[in-house]
Design goal:
By secondary structure, this protein is α/β, with parallel strands linked by helices. It has helices at residues 2-25, 61-72, 101-121, 131-144, 178-187, 216-232, 292-298, 300-308, 331-348, 380-386; strands at residues 44-48, 77-81, 87-92, 152-156, 198-202, 237-241, 273-276, 313-319, 356-362, 388-394. The strands form 2 sheets. The chain has a 6-stranded mixed sheet, sandwiched between helices.
Length: 395
């Protein structure tokens, strides 16, 4: 009985070893894919370059893993330069993969090394940054070279474009609603064609001096903006990759204009405290706070003053962007509802309601800026500028 069991075990081990050898010498699986998007034998285009104000991409983390996974499936590679006039600067044809797993792994590592060298040499040659065009160029390259599988585009850049139509230098664009930016680009026919392409982002919001760093909130909004753009442009799948770009400033590349980053809000009793929608955010066209705790934190200096000056009062005024008749709520009603929502936070914190005056200004306030294009399209940057809640102290 013992001999029969021992013989069966030896036979099972032999079968397993045979299968392992067969799998190892035949078609080894590519490296693990860290995202849920399809990464297969379709061509992959990486849009990246060392440029001013943006952290330089490094081939590490999820970025390296995804590219290795694609190479292990036989994908070709393209490297697209990101600057003011993006173009393809390096290409590697689809690998003729070896059947042996060790040889195949060596092929992948060799190609990754070649890509690392090309990425090190990649640097901007023109001023400014045009990420949307870089996405479009990368999509054309990947789509045109993908005989089998799904084309993949990776944008490894800060994403702070300084060229129209997504010019983050313009007031309000950095804090604009992501969906409104995507809608504006779509309505004006300025979306890159990303149809049928998997789009991945790495390093969004990662900057170098002299560019003022973005806050976590601004980076999250920027990431949401690019996700909305890629989705509206027809991408089949969108994801964000973890990587650690090099944040040392580049001095060997053309200058890029800095994107103005709003300074931290400061409070004085002599001037209204203006809280933009990026500071005290509301869900679009509602008086519902996106983050009530963050909104309460933004009100902290006003609360401190009202508590130490019991005879002071505060006027809370809501302002709005323009609306399109029949598509948006009444501007006066919406701005008043937002003012009342902020007043509610003050009363929840212990301030008596009789010390608070609420007002809805709609679009009728001194520093309103025109936010509609001639055809009625809402301009995301000016619209973001016009959305605020303003608190004025009266002693």
């Amino acid at each position: 009985m013992t001999q029969r069991i021992s013989h069966a075990l030896r036979l099972a081990v032999a079968v397993l070893l045979g299968l392992s050898a067969l799998l190892g010498c035949g078609s080894p699986a590519p490296s693990h894919n860290p995202v849920t998007c399809p990464i297969d034998s379709g061509s992959l285009a990486l849009a990246a370059a060392g440029r001013a104000n943006s952290a330089t991409p490094r081939l590490d983390g999820d970025l390296r893993t995804v590219i290795a996974h694609a190479l292990g499936a036989g994908a070709g590679l393209h490297l697209i330069r990101v600057d003011g006039a993006p173009e393809t600067m390096w290409r590697r044809a689809s690998l003729d993969l070896a059947g042996n797993s060790a040889a195949r792994e060596q092929q992948v590592e060799q190609t990754l090394g070649d890509l690392t060298g090309a990425l090190t040499r990649a640097r901007a040659v023109t001023t400014q940054a045009d990420d949307l065009t870089a996405l479009a160029v990368a999509a054309r390259a990947a789509r045109g070279d993908s005989r089998h599988g799904s084309p993949v585009v990776i944008l490894a850049d800060s994403g702070l474009q300084t060229s129209p139509p997504l010019d983050f230098r313009q007031p309000g664009v950095l804090s604009a609603e992501p969906a409104e930016i995507a809608n504006y680009l779509q309505r004006t026919g300025q979306l890159p064609d990303l149809s049928g392409v998997t789009v991945l982002f790495a390093g969004l919001g990662a900057t170098t001096t002299p560019q003022t760093p973005l806050t976590d909130t601004q980076i999250n909004r920027l990431t949401t903006t690019y996700t909305a753009i890629a989705t509206a442009a027809g991408a089949t799948c969108v994801a964000v990759l973890a990587t650690t770009p090099d944040t040392r400033p580049r001095t060997d590349v053309p200058e890029v204009d800095q994107v103005p980053v709003p300074p931290p809000v400061t409070f004085t009793t002599s001037d209204p405290l203006i809280l933009g929608n990026d500071v005290i955010g509301f869900a679009p066209d509602t008086a519902q706070f996106l983050d009530p705790a963050a909104a309460t934190t933004a009100l902290a200096p006003v609360l401190a003053h009202l508590r130490t000056h019991p005879h002071s009062t505060v006027t809370v005024t809501g302002t709005c962007s323009s609306g399109v008749l029949g598509h948006y709520p009444d501007r006066i009603a919406l701005s008043l509802a937002r003012a009342r929502a902020v007043a509610g936070l003050l009363t929840d914190a212990g301030i008596s309601p009789d010390r608070i005056i609420t007002h809805g200004a709609g679009t009728d306030f001194p520093d309103f800026v025109p936010d509609l294009a001639p055809d009625g399209t809402l301009l995301p940057g000016p619209a973001a500028h016009n959305r605020s809640v303003r608190l004025t102290i009266t002693t």
